[in-house]
Amino acid sequence: MNMDELKRQAAAKALEHVRDGMKLGLGTGSTAKHFVELLGERVAGGLKVIGVPTSETTRADAQRCGVPLTTLDEVDRLDLTVDGADEVDPALNLIKGGGGALLREKIVAAASDRMIVIADDSKWVPTLGRFPLPVEVIPFGLSATRRAIADVFAKCGLHGEMAIRSGKDGHAFVTDGGHWIIDARLGTITDAPRLAGLLGAIPGVVEHGLFIGLASTAMLAGSQGIRVFERP
Question: What's the CA gap between 14 and 17, in Å, rounded?
Answer without folding.
Answer: 6
